[in-house]
Amino acid sequence: MRKLLKTTLAASVALGALAGTALAQNTPKKIGYVVNYATHEWYQNVIKGMRDRGQQLGIEIEVKDANLDVAKQVSFAEDFMAQGVDVLIITPVNEEGVAPLIRRAKADNMPLVLEGNPVKGMTTMVAICDYDTGYHAGVAAGKYAKEHLGGTAKVMNVGLPLLSATVLRSQGFMDGIKTEIADATMVHDLDGGGNPDRALEVSSAALAQNADINIIYGINDNSSLGGLQAWKAAGKSQDGLLVVGTGGEGLAFINAMQNEPSYKIEAAMFPEKVGFTAVDAAVKVFNGEEVPEHIVSPTAPMLGEDWKKFYSVEGTTRSVNWDGINGVQAPDKCMKTAADLKQ
Amino acid sequence: MHAELVQERGGAHTGAAIEMHGIGKRFPGVIALEEVDLVLARGKVHALMGENGAGKSTLIKIMAGVYGRDAGSINIGGREVALRNPREALAEGIKVVFQEIALISEFTVAENIFLERHPVGRAGSIDWKKIRAESAALFERIGFDVDPAARTGDLPVSQQQMVEIARALAHEARIVVMDEPTSSLTPNEVALLFKVIRRLTDLGIAVLYVTHKLDEVFEIADTVTVLRDGRHISTRPIGEHTHDTLIQDMIGRRIDNLFPRSRGHAKGDIALSVKGVSTDAKLDDVSFEVRAGEVLGFFGLMGAGRTELAKAIVGFDPIRAGTIEVAGRPLKPHDTRTGAGLGIGLLTEDRKGEGLMLELSVQQNMSLAALGAFSRAGFVDETREKAAVQGFVDRFRVRTPSLNQLIKNLSGGNQQKVLLARWLMRGLKVIVVDEPTRGIDVGAKSEIFALLDRLANEGLAVVMMTSEMPELLGLSDRIAVMAEGRITAVFDRDAATQENILNAAIA
Amino acid sequence: MTSESLSSTRKPGTAFGLFADRSQIVLIGILAALCIAISLAAPQFYSEANVIAILRQCALVLIVAAGMTMLLICGEVDLSVGASLAFVGCIGMDVINRTGSLTLGVLAALAFAGTVGLFNGIVATRLRVNSLIGTIATMMMLQGGVFLYTREAVQNHHHLPSFTGLGAGYIGPLPIPVIIAAIVFVVAFVALRYTTFGRYLYAVGASENAARLSGLRAERLKLIAFVVTGLLVGVAGMILASLMNAGQPTAGRGFELTVIAAVILGGTSLSGGRGTLIGTLLGVLVLKVIDNGIIILRWNQDLQMVVPGIVIILATWLDIVRRRADAR
Amino acid sequence: MPQSLDAAHPVPPPAPAAAMLKALFRRSEIPLLISLLVVIAFFSIASDTFLTTRNIANVLGQSALAMTAGIGVAIVFISGEVDVSVGSLVAAVAIPLIVVMNATESLFLGIAAALALGLVVGAVNGYLSAYLGINSLIVTLGTLFILRGGVYLYTGQTAIPDEAMLESFFQIGNGRLLGLLPYPALIAFVLLLAFAYVMRHRPFGRQVYAVGGNPEVARLAGYSVKRVKFACFIISGLLATVAGIMLASRLGSAVHVAGLGFEFQVVAAVVLGGVSLSGGIGSLFGMALGVLILSFLSNGLGMLALATEWQLVVTGGIIIAAVAFDEFKRRRI
């Protein structure tokens, strides 16, 4: 309890400090955010970060959920423009699919910030580096494998080829792990749909075919947990297994890290920080300030008990330890982006 | 307009309109038609008669292009024609008026008249004005009083049947086939129908008239062809026939009395008591009683509410007011399960829609209502079930290759026997039969008639809805007449005459 | 494919039940061909682990498909099973967390799932909304409702071994879900094949009016089929929650289509009155073997959408061809 | 006599006022129109940004996709069949469109290629359903999966961007007539009028109603039931293609995840619009009203900042209520 208080205090101090700098400028009154998938925990936390920051700066944040529908996304952005918000933030369902929208926003003089994925013709984007996230988790996994798994790395990737971001994570993970274990291989590359049950299903088949898998990588927590559950359902012992998850958006990974002996690494992507940063970027764009094309929001692999530095849990509520998160350094540039995938 | 057309084309009103020779058709396990000949003369009415399953419907479906033939030739105007589908048959000038209403109920009457070909104006748009005007003119010509703009589904069945018949006039037909056209018509409409038929023959059109009603044949037909068991039996001018010879040709033996009555007048306790039943749709304060062993006949013109009454008293349709008691115990309205439990069941007039489960077998169809009796703790004892079904198949002489035959492959009369058996297997106190012999020929009719008679004799109470006078007068102990949802008169068997029944029905 | 014999028409006894119905021979052939082809290319197909993985996947689908078969036979359909599956898991997990009792959790899950089935049944039979549309609407409401209930996955707090066992446990060599599915299958098979209830379902599906006139309570029978399907979703939902060690609100997407595809593939008619549980079992196996084979063979997983689509159309067409041949 | 021709009753009876009222009420359009007005009125009061010309124009543009595809789906429904493949088809047709445009820089060739694919898919659906007699729900569910899988396989699960960047192509989905009415709304409206005319005043339209209302009767009247149904599937394929082209223009690319769940939206709107699943009943104007109701509802709930979960719950409830009402009405009146 005392710890929670301390965290909250620290957070407000941090917020206040940042708010101080921001308040010197003009602030937009209302920001419209078209999120691609609001029911997902990741985006709920992004929104939470936005609202926290918005409250600090006295900005109203309105959210519309495209619910993974590209057509609806364009419609909602249109609605916001008709409604007359001051800045628009969009998380594209698909990065190609919002190109005409950006053109129309420009024609309407509507300041626009993208979250997540870069789009041709955009002003700025706030995003984590997916490749880097995977890469650093991969390096950590390599080190762990050297120490605990006898130096072999047979990876089952519970991936999601549907999105460039998740493809980058998987690539980064493999590249990272190879820096430590040169002969690390991806034994199975799966499409787990990002869903826990689908991930469970496809992993079961893959685990049955390849008994030598010793590392499960999931592009999000649902995927890594689905893979782990498939492992458990096959009646296998978790000795000699390493599970690496990505995201760290909810309670699921904390639960797993506490209770599952193999769930040792989580590549945290701090969604709250993404939302926080996006609002700051929106204010800057609103004021016509110079902004970099890619504003990077930090990520970091968390090993073992590391998560306690960033989050505290009380019952079923998770609160942000802003001190910890703000202490994580973000790179200026990503090692690899979606643009690199196309070549 | 149309009349001239036909006359021009028809030329002399004599000679063959269509010649069919050696027609053969097989269905799985059944030879429906074998070596059947039929020649229709221009401007004449040719009656086609035959028992249940004799092959009449198969033959007219071949003429309509609904079925292909397996053997034989069809010549029209000296040309052999294929008649692969209804379109080809229509193009050859063959128009079939089926017993089942063949109208689109969502369309207006006028549009249905021109269903085969919507007249179009310039630019290919439908000429609705012409459709309206011509159908109105057509109705006026034949004296048929119905609004061409009415939605067809809103009309009573008899008027729909008349629309069907009128439709035959609107087309450039050379051959008109009518399948049991009077089965749902009122006497006035039958007269109208005969007028239409005479008009058709005056135009040189050949009419094939399929029916079971002997009186009608003697009234309208020039020639009669009889089929039996899929074979051609006889073709004779009507003048060479008497009632008896015709029946003999149809069933291969003589019947002295079509509706033999074996019963005395012994009546038991009250089996069914209906008091003040009214429904939203039709019925208005209907009350009557039926005793065990008694047959109560209900007569009424189309739309009088007989079918509605039948469905209400077995618990199929909801009622607004009134009570129904079976053997002294109250029936819960709108609940057929308690109805069946109390021992009342309905033999429906709509076999396809409400009686049969077409995709299921004879056995599954027959044992449905009595399944509970063959089961212990919810499990069906199939040996007992099968034995019972076989028993009824034998007793009712149901013609089926096996108990596993799908019921849709049986003829109408055999289907009706299966449905009757469905109730008798269960054991009833009261059976309500609605047009029990509709679409069934003389032989099967008299079988079903005899069955009902015997059942009443065994103590069953029978409520019979019928529009056929001989049936009504032959079987009923008492006759109730309905008009507009009310009972207008009740006659004892001895007091009932055709005249006073009709008078009460019109009232 | 042609047969002149009359015995090819279906027998009431064997018609909806016994093993050698001809439509099922096609499916058995497809299944055998698939198994042989896959195992030739990837011998691990027959490994114990893989067979158990396939069976466990089949179990979830089969449990719900047993109910869906009954529904389709009586002429109805339920598209809300996928959304309900997710919701059930969340509720079951939540109740276990609150009470620490597996029994109460399972009961809550069953109560909820049964209520969803009841709701679908009432909408279809009392309000007379076509169940295809009505259950799509229920699906939407459940998808929305589950996020109103919980914003995130409900984690397993107590780690009850009995709860874990529900999905991942074994009795002897057999996984518990497979045993549950086998029990459900046998009960449903017997119910459809040997009881009056089963016979009534076929009758209601073949002609609701005729069934009603024969003294059956058609609406109530349909209602029961809806509730049974709902309850089976409850069972499957708890197994899935156990397998995932959490109640996942995002689970079950597309599950309804897998289930319906399997039932249709098994020869059950969408228009009611026709279908068998053996067929459904074969349908489930075929679909899941295809799914598994595509992964085992390392084919592009996008084929997991394409191949079942083709197989279902093909199987339905073969069934039509066969029935036409029988009718000739 | 007035020439007001309703889809199902081209010649309304010249009846007294009560019967007229009854006939009016039996048409699904009137209650639907009232519902639409209630929805609009409600949100106009509840949100101050709802009833603006710009917003209304936007919603009309947004509803154009569902309306265009909905015309085809409604026609297939009226013919007594079902088409749920439109969700994947709108994504699939964008591929030939964009690929050909990128290669040839010709909007015309791109659209031709897209229409060709739509035609083929419609023909396959129609052939399998009408001529081979496979249940159309199964067929189109199958093609829904096959097409989506095919799109993923072809694109490798990425979007194909529009590299030709033709202004004309951009304008299709994003341009506005007089700077106000989005072109998609205009296209959908013209198509709606054209097909409503066909369904009421051309023999083909009447054949579709007859075939759906009673196929046996239609066959006896000499119609080729199979050919009519086949044609309906082709119409549906082509109209879904038009919707797909408009969507591709709005997205500036062929997006592999486009149209996921679109079939549910369209079917829901069509059914809400009073088009019966059993065939032969319903009108295209009813369908259009169904689409508009759902579009305004989605827009309005969004304006009230109601979360997706509430939107789902509300929409689901409305569908059940609307269809139940329709059924109730059909039985009572």
From TrEMBL, chain A:
InterPro entries: Peripla_BP_I, SBP_2_dom. It comes from the Bacteria. It is found in: Cell envelope. The keyword Signal applies. GO terms for cellular component: cell envelope. Its main location: other. Keywords: Signal. Residues 1-24 form the signal peptide. Residues 31-290 form the Periplasmic binding protein domain. The keyword Signal applies. One of its GO terms (molecular function) is carbohydrate binding. Belongs to the bacterial solute-binding protein 2 family. This is Sugar ABC transporter substrate-binding protein. It comes from Kumtagia ephedrae.
TrEMBL record, chain B:
This is D-xylose ABC transporter ATP-binding protein. GO terms for cellular component: plasma membrane. Residues 18-254, 253-507 form the ABC transporter domain. It is a peripheral membrane protein. Belongs to the ABC transporter superfamily. Transmembrane segments: none annotated. It is found in: Cell membrane. PROSITE patterns: ABC_TRANSPORTER_1 (PS00211), ABC_TRANSPORTER_2 (PS50893). Keywords: ATP-binding, Cell membrane, Membrane, Nucleotide-binding, Repeat, Sugar transport, Translocase, Transport. It holds the Pfam family ABC_tran. Its main location: membrane. GO terms for molecular function: ATP binding; ATP hydrolysis activity.
Automatic annotation (TrEMBL), chain C:
It is a multi-pass membrane protein. InterPro entries: ABC_transp_permease (IPR001851). It is found in: Cell membrane. GO terms for cellular component: plasma membrane. Pfam families: BPD_transp_2. Keywords: Cell membrane, Membrane, Transmembrane, Transmembrane helix. The chain crosses the membrane at residues 25-46, 52-72, 102-122, 129-150, 170-192, 223-244, 250-270, 277-297, 303-321. The keyword Amino-acid biosynthesis does not apply. GO terms for molecular function: transmembrane transporter activity. Its main location: membrane. PANTHER family: ABC TRANSPORTER PERMEASE PROTEIN YPHD-RELATED-RELATED, RIBOSE IMPORT PERMEASE PROTEIN RBSC. This is ABC transporter permease.
From TrEMBL, chain D:
It is found in: Cell membrane. It is a multi-pass membrane protein. The keyword Ribosomal protein does not apply. The keyword Membrane applies. It holds the Pfam family BPD_transp_2. Keywords: Cell inner membrane, Cell membrane, Membrane, Sugar transport, Transmembrane, Transmembrane helix, Transport. One of its GO terms (molecular function) is transmembrane transporter activity. One of its GO terms (cellular component) is plasma membrane. The chain crosses the membrane at residues 30-47, 59-77, 84-101, 107-128, 135-155, 175-198, 228-248, 254-277, 310-328. InterPro entries: ABC_transp_permease. Part of the binding-protein-dependent transport system for D-xylose. Probably responsible for the translocation of the substrate across the membrane. PANTHER family: ABC TRANSPORTER PERMEASE PROTEIN YPHD-RELATED-RELATED (PTHR32196), XYLOSE TRANSPORT SYSTEM PERMEASE PROTEIN XYLH (PTHR32196:SF32). This is Xylose transport system permease protein XylH. It comes from Kumtagia ephedrae. The lineage of its organism: Bacteria, Pseudomonadati, Pseudomonadota, Alphaproteobacteria, Hyphomicrobiales.
